[in-house]
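Write out this protein's structure.
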Amino acid sequence: MAREGFVDLLRFVLGGPVPTLENSPAGTLLFERGNGLLCAINLTDHPIPLPDAGSPLLASGPVTEDGLLPLDTTVLLHLD
């Protein structure tokens, strides 16, 4: 699903606007939900570096030991 499709889906699920971050790399979606949480979604076909923003709390798949977010994986981070 394209980035725009995820934004539309999140807008529907969350019942309002999705505050996406302008510095989201191509093929990714980064957004804050408040309470010190950041969600990172990797929509690319390759692993990407985790945002430097915080510590992983929950992920939809394994995050590599060297700090990469695998393809088609979502992670929830606590902002440090």
